[in-house]
Amino acid sequence: MHDNVVGYNQKPGSDAKNEVNDLLLPVALKMENVSKVFKSPAGELIALREISFAVRKGEFISIVGPSGSGKSTLLNIIGALDRPSNGRVFIDNVDIFSLKDSQIAQMRNLLIGYIFQSFNLINRTSVQKNVEIPAIISGMNSEARHRRSLKLLRILGIEDKASLKPVNLSGGQQQRVAIARSLMNNPAIILADEPTGNLDSKTGEEVFDLLRMLANKFKRTIVFVTHNSDLASRTDRTIFIRDGAIEKEIINRI
Ligand SMILES: Nc1ncnc2c1ncn2[C@@H]1O[C@H](COP(=O)(O)OP(=O)(O)OP(=O)(O)O)[C@@H](O)[C@H]1O
Ligand SMILES: [Mg+2]
């Protein structure tokens, strides 16, 4: 990557220098005693129990745990797609659920990029238009939007697919489209819910390497939910969740 399209302010630096800087970096994201209870006619289900942790700017963390342990629920709350029943979530020191709904929506669009296992692309429209959606919502003018979306597609190696419908792309290519879309508004935080879950291991590695590059070179903060313990062990830190609670935390890389 030769230019700074992913970030406005962040300059790529050497990995060694970045590792030293990591220790000094500010907190990007903080969860404080977050609980989530789903209520239904059948009763209450406690999906998250008093979850607390912080993630530093540029940190690449993984969340692992059995199916049903609460990983997606946690990610949805971090990304303000859902509200906690109790507790607080701070992004850049702002208590996000104390904001008005319209402010939460704006923050979600500008500060957070999402990548999902099932890509969540719109097949009615082109790859390029899919990438542009967050910028359409945030009101970027069309020329800047076209330029940026093409640049992101080029960086991700799929510029030649810009005018195709996502359904005509391979799984790995579709996930690259989703990554490009997640970067469209230059978010500080990227939330990825099993982004390699539907991919073969080689393509999964490639997607993982892209996330690693975004954390290392561009200081994006990345929260990566995965069932793949090998990939998890290659992130900076792994948080293990069981029955909605943090079971343990392992630092993989200082
Ligand atoms: N909207 C909802 N309403 C009711 N229960 C829910 C809802 N969303 C999740 N749950 C329940 O909360 C628990 C945690 O679900 P969650 O999807 O967070 O698990 P997960 O760790 O992401 O699992 P997986 O690895 O299978 O994706 C599960 O018991 C699930 O059934
Ligand atoms: Mg899940």
Concise description?
Helices cover 35% and strands 27% of the residues. The chain is of the alpha/beta class. The protein has a domain at 58-81 and 102-251: Rossmann fold (3-Layer(aba) Sandwich).
Reconstruct the topology from this structure.
Elements: H1 15-22, E1 27-40, E2 43-56, E3 60-64, H2 71-78, E4 86-91, E5 94-95, H3 101-111, E6 112-116, H4 127-138, H5 142-155, H6 171-183, E7 189-193, H7 201-218, E8 221-225, H8 229-233, E9 237-242, E10 245-251
Parallel strand pairs: 3-8, 3-9, 6-7, 7-8
Antiparallel strand pairs: 1-2, 1-4, 4-5, 9-10
Helix pairs in contact: 4-5, 4-6, 6-7
Bound molecules: adenosine-5'-triphosphate and magnesium ion (MG).
| CATH class category name of the domain at 58-81 and 102-251 | Alpha Beta
Superfamily at the CATH H level of the domain at 58-81 and 102-251? P-loop containing nucleotide triphosphate hydrolases
Question: Which runs of at least 5 residues are low in confidence (pLDDT < 50)?
Answer: 1-5, 7-14
**Roughly how much helix do the residues carry, as a percent range?**
25-40%
CATH-derived architecture of the domain at 58-81 and 102-251 = 3-Layer(aba) Sandwich
Mean pLDDT: 90
Strands, total number = 10
Order of helices and strands: HEEEHEEHEHHHEHEHEE
CATH fold title of the domain at 58-81 and 102-251? Rossmann fold
- Form type: globular
List the bound ligands. Answer: adenosine-5'-triphosphate, magnesium ion
Strand order of the largest sheet: 6-7-8-3-9-10
The percent range for strand residues is 25-35%
Roughly how many Å is the radius of gyration? 18 Å
The major sheet is characterized as: 6 strands, mixed
Tally of alpha and pi helices: 8
